[in-house]
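Its record is set out here:
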Amino acid sequence: MKKAGVIGGGAWGTALAQVCARAGLETTLWAREPDVVASVNTSHENTSFLAGVELEPMIRATGDLADLAASDVVLAVTPAQHLRATLTAFAPHVRDGLRILLCAKGVEQGSLKLMTEVLAETIPQAAPAVLSGPSFAGEVARGLPTAVTLACPDPGCAVELAELIATPTFRPYFATDMIGAEAGGAVKNVLAIACGIVEGRGLGRSAHAALITRGFSELTRLAVALGGEAETVAGLCGLGDLVLTCSSPQSRNMSVGLALGRGQTLDEALAGKLSVAEGVASAPAVRELARKLGVDVPICVATAAILAGEVGVDDAIRGLLSRPLREE
């Protein structure tokens, strides 16, 4: 395999295009924004979403999904709530068995489906895989050391894909549990907003650590209820991603929580941001999915309620702290 296509010209899509190019693949990056296409092709930089990072010369940008038809592997990096529409548009150009590596993290609103389910409905002839783990786009794009989970139900395919995109500084660990990998990535975004609220409210490191730990329990319960494995989310795509996203204002989701914790409204917290904080859109879907499955996720429920304006930050915190005492 020599050609990679990347769908999504945001920061993460651009960073993964860098990974593919560094792995020796001829890489085509599809972007919805004409200015991104022009910037990548003329100045080898995504000035809108990843300014200051020089891109590999093997990366070519396009605004036409048909240009990805000859790819040996396609990385789908469109935000979760827009993935269905983008894959539907790409479907006419997809041959049977094309390997599509899903890199968006979220639960689709309305359908309450994971990204593999969205792919199965829009491009059933594709061979699915999931990429997830602790990875800030800017660090990956600059070539800083990163390790992620690459999940595919076919172990041989997982190994082949991992070897295909691995570089000296980008290390995929392969797995077969796509559901666990997806659930970890989706729920951690919601929990990162909650951690940002704790930080913004000045509640201290003890509260921060407790929230990460109890949040990880929620993440694990939901992943297992969906059919994933607890062992999967104890790895990079669950615990690893949770620790990173809940511990740095670089996280788009944590930064939203920080603003909310400091008293800003959600509109104020999102104002001026080009990049998507996936947890904002996923929170109501995660809440509804957990309710449907009968899974107790009080932190995710409280976060969704804050984002929806159903409860204030202080009341939500009091509600969590006043829950009945129980075994850990």
Remarks:
- The first helix runs from residue 11 to 22.
- The CA atoms of residues 169 and 221 lie 32 Å apart.
- The chain has two domains: 3-176, 179-321.
